Amino acid sequence: TRVRSSAASDVYKRQDVVPRIMSREQMVQLRAWMQEHAASTALLVSSVPAVLPPVIGFAEYVMGVRPFQSVSSSLVRRLGQILAGIQQKLALRFSFDHWPVFGATWHELIELLDTRKRDLVILSGDVHFSYAMSARRTFFPTKRRVALYQLVASPFKNTLEWRDKRLILGQAWIKRAIYGGLYTRMLPLLRTKGAKHVHFDMMFQNAIALVTFWPQSQGNYCIRQVYLGVKHKTLVEIGSTVVNCG
Predict the structure, then answer these.
(1) DSSP 23-80
(2) Exposed / middle / buried, residue 94 (Cβ in 10 Å: 0-12, 13-18, 19+)
């Protein structure tokens, strides 16, 4: 199924409302679809990523938190509104328009993950670089938990300014984070030639992606995303990410 996000300008109109990336009606439909397919690996296509590189994801999540909404004190609520205004300005300033910043639907997505019996895979883009991540409800390795895997491919043409790229690279040394009910981590991204790691596990060059699923035991899948770029006017494999392949 495909998930479409709302425009940021519409979402940030009211400071006293926990922001949403999907309407309640859309979330009801997604929940029903997820419950219908709870026993098999589910594949979603989202116009914007649900899981971002750890520091960026944490920053967006913090910008979406509205801690004083249900407080009875009018003074505290007023302080909450002032805080929400600051959060909104910062979110717009840094183009925070991905799932973590939308507090209401973010927690609804986490609740959906709790109902899963098999992994959830999200394909996405719209961030001007390629990467892959996994997320779970716990970081304790004693028992395998259902995972959320996300594979992101950059656009055909990247227009990422150096200032923005520098900010992204500045946080890239942190590979793991816990926020909003999830333990997230970057997945290795390998160059095709020599199978060496891509620096910071993020690829900034223009690319398209081909994702292949191989059925495994007990209803699981081995997943490989291949990144394809143009070299000498020919489309060639430039990198890959392997997920859940043992």
Answers:
(1) -HHHHHHHHHHHHHTTTS-EEEEESS-SS--HHHHHHHHHHH--TTTT-S-HHHHHHH
(2) middle
Classify 194 in phi/psi space as left (phi over 0), alpha (psi -120 to 50) or beta: left
Query: CA 57 to CA 110: how far, in whole Å?
Result: 14
Closest CA to 44 of 110, 124, 109: 124
Q: Kindly provide the residue ranges of all beta strands, DSSP E only, lying in 73-181, ordered along the sequence.
A: 120-124, 131-136, 148-152, 176-179
Q: What are residue 177's phi and psi, to 5 degrees?
A: -160, 155
Find out whether 41 and 87 touch, Cβ atoms under 8 Å.
Answer: no
pLDDT class of 196 with cuts at 50, 70, 90: confident
| Residue 177, SS3 per DSSP | strand
Task: Measure the CA–CA gap between 114 and 131, rounded to whole angstroms.
Answer: 24
Q: Are 38 and 114 in contact (CB under 8 A)?
A: no
pTM score, two decimals?
0.83
Please tell me the total number of residues recorded for the chain in this structure: 246
Q: Which residues contact 101 (CB under 8 A, 6 or more apart)?
A: 19, 60, 61, 63, 64, 91
How sure is the predictor about 52, in pLDDT bands with cuts at 50, 70 and 90? very high
Residues 6+ apart with CB under 8 A from 61: 100, 101, 103, 106, 179, 180
